[in-house]
Amino acid sequence: MTQITNHLPTKELQRLDAAHHMHPFTEDAALARKGARIITRGRGVWLTDSEGKEILDGMAGLWCVNLGYGRKDLAEVAARQMEELCYYNTFFQTSHVPAIALAAKVAELAPGDLNHLFYAGSGSEANDTNIRLVRRYWDVKGKPGKTVIISRKNAYHGSTMGGGSLGGMAGIHAQGGLPIPDIVHIGQPYWWAEGGDMTPEEFGLLRARELEAKIEELGADRVAAFIGEPIQGAGGVIVPPATYWPEIQRICDKYGILLIADEVITGFGRTGNWFACETFGIRPHIITIAKGLSSGYAPIGGSIICDEVYETIANSGDDFNHGYTYCGHPVAAAVALRNLELIEEEGVIDHVRNVAHPYLMERWQALADHPLVGEAKLVGLMGSIALTPDKASRAAFASEAGTVGYRCRERCFANNLVMRHVGDRMIISPPLVITPSEIDALIDRATRSLDECHAGLKADGLLKAA
Ligand code: PMP
């Protein structure tokens, strides 16, 4: 057992946590009764909790710690930058070295003519920026009526008023008066749950063509942009059928509407390329980034903007009246820059493509033989399995959606594996540096958890189709 860092006993930490710390996306009173799991340390793909348990982090934190935990080189860069220049703003005609260097690096890595970076502190903030960018773009172009942004049901684009509105999560929309005006949602390309008797390819086209129908319904003179995650992450790691993105691209081109790819999860190597737009052949005008930009070592995000959108707004003769105190924060930018350099120097994307993905793919797909598992999907190091009482009919469980997924996640926790559930789908997104032997540990723990979950469902009579 790893030595436990000196801290208060777990019970006391849980008491203070419950008394003063309100958690995101949490029913706090229920958590207070149970007590939060307290994480004290991280090394590579491993976490340690306050009881000294070693946990394999199959989610890289929240899809972000791509280089793994505990990198001294990143800590040193942060410390040096804090001493040199801890903060300065980028408003009022000033700039600083980390913001300049990182923007140049991101422009070098980004595909096509995505050459301009507007900084934010998070993915949600960056998507708020995107709403203002695309509306401003069309306004400057003399088309102020083009304000509508089309997104998808079950998309996740953050939880600010703008990000939560762009997202298509019913639970978020149900609280706080979302979505804000002029954001509309079409169906998602989720073949497993919604594709019925169609082939995945037919279904991909059908869902993409909802975009065309929506543009026709609203009028192209009203539509500013379409936004989508190349692979829906928080929605359940939903990999669209191969026909989907080419058709979305065709429709955006045909109607001349802007295309925003939200790569907050998929950016910086997650799918085996720097950007998932390369993996799927998408040509966006704007890419949203955060998370893997700094491997989660510092909060930073942004919008990478193509020449046309940038130049239109930059040459409007007016300020773009938008910005955050922490735009391009020097410490976060310095850490992010070093993170990107390390991904290059250590060949992390080659490792994903040539080692980790092929090995995990073999073992992940074999999970589909488990009695509880329907499809098993994996792109790069982003994977999901659908839990089902009947593979042949792709049936949902009779119990309320999420009941079985929650039980499976609890078994994973008990087996010291972080694997998340979205409804009755289990998802993984481990650090990109995961090794084959760590993948073995992940699969062994996942299999044990599935076995235990299956036995529990049987015992409780819950192996029933809806
Ligand atoms: N977009 C996507 C695709 C995301 O997955 C997330 C976070 N999970 C966000 C935006 C929001 O990012 P943040 O939590 O940093 O605001």
Folded structure, characterized:
The chain is α/β, with parallel strands linked by helices and 466 residues long. It folds into 2 domains: 147 residues, Aspartate Aminotransferase, domain 1 (Alpha-Beta Complex); 273 residues, Aspartate Aminotransferase, domain 2, CATH 3.40.640.10. 42% of the residues lie in helices and 15% in strands. The strands form 3 sheets. It has a 7-stranded mixed sheet, with helices on both faces. A 4-stranded mixed sheet has the order 1-2-3-13. The chain has a 4-stranded antiparallel sheet with strand order 11-12-15-14, covered by helices on one side. 4'-deoxy-4'-aminopyridoxal-5'-phosphate binds next to helix 6. The site of 4'-deoxy-4'-aminopyridoxal-5'-phosphate has 17 residues, from helix 6.
Blueprint of the fold:
Elements: H1 10-20, H2 28-34, E1 39-43, E2 46-49, E3 54-57, H3 60-63, H4 72-84, H5 97-109, E4 114-120, H6 123-140, E5 148-152, H7 161-166, H8 170-173, E6 183-186, H9 191-194, H10 200-218, E7 223-228, H11 244-255, E8 258-262, H12 276-280, E9 286-289, E10 301-306, H13 307-314, H14 330-345, H15 348-366, E11 373-379, E12 382-387, H16 403-414, E13 417-418, E14 420-422, E15 425-428, H17 436-459
Parallel strand pairs: 3-13, 5-6, 5-7, 7-8, 8-9
Antiparallel strand pairs: 1-2, 2-3, 4-10, 9-10, 11-12, 12-15, 14-15
Helix pairs in contact: 1-2, 4-14, 5-14, 6-13, 10-11, 15-17, 16-17
The structure holds 4'-deoxy-4'-aminopyridoxal-5'-phosphate.
